Amino acid sequence: MIPSTPGSTTHPSEPDDARRIVVVGGVAGGMSAAARARRLDERASIIVLEQSDHVSFAGCGLPYQVAGEITERDALLLHTPASLRASLDLDVRTRHRVTAIDRAARTVTVAAEDGTYELGYDALLLAPGATTVLPPVAGLDHPAVHTLRTMADLDALSARLAQLEAEVAAGRTAPLRAVVVGAGFIGLEAVEALVGRGLTVDVVERADQVLPPLEPDLAPLLADELRDHGVGLHLGTSASAVVPQPAGADHAVALELADGTALDADVVLVSVGVRPASDLAAAAGLALGERGAIRVDGDQRTSDPHV
User: Fold this and answer.
1) Secondary structure element (H or E) that encloses residue 115, with its range
2) What is the pLDDT of residues 95-136, one digit of tens each?
3) How many whole angstroms from its chain centre is CA 150?
4) How far apart are CA 253 and CA 181, in angstroms?
């Protein structure tokens, strides 16, 4: 086994001759792989490095927690580092971000809250997932603008909605308005959740139909259903700017569209897709595919036999 360099953190019971498998990224891909690796090798030292606070959560349930159909936030959390240690003897380290891979030395550089360390590996498994795509729109850093992909996203959006509902309880008379940019699966689930919370919702979609993957003859049926629930549809156009409104205005921002329309909003949810989080692999010289994902063969092996 390749040892850690000084300053690294290892499990005290790790056998000296155990194979060390380092997994970068948790949630569905990383944790499934780590669990499978444990079933294949009972003696291996398996370390999972996850940069966020949560190593295993039900991402598909996020819109339903926003809607209140999933009433307890913790119901989305499937496992914790402690439960994974107890059930599969996995060393799961949250808030540990891998910043570099040294393929020659077979080490990764890890940034943790208490400092940076090097960790050696015999086999490295990359499961970095994806990052949210943000369109080139001015003003997306406004506090009213949100995404919905992670637990942190959920917490931020939930806090914003709670704040708005408190304003209504305190006597706010202006209706609560939301704009969802992107009419894909997650976008439309978010629309349903926001309508259920009592907001007036507009949808902006660059394609000429909602749910672009859907067959063109079926999409109008879905559009009609959305309109029947009071959802405004703005198809064949895109967002161009988020413009803050002055203090005392009825709504927080105005979302300007490419067709000249301006939509008032207290919440803007951007859901236009994701891209592969392959920057770490690219920096290490691993081969990428045409769309920027890590290139692998039929057995999920990268261009490096140890990765």
Assistant:
1) strand 115-120
2) 999 999 999 999 999 999 999 999 999 999 999 999 999 999
3) 4
4) 14
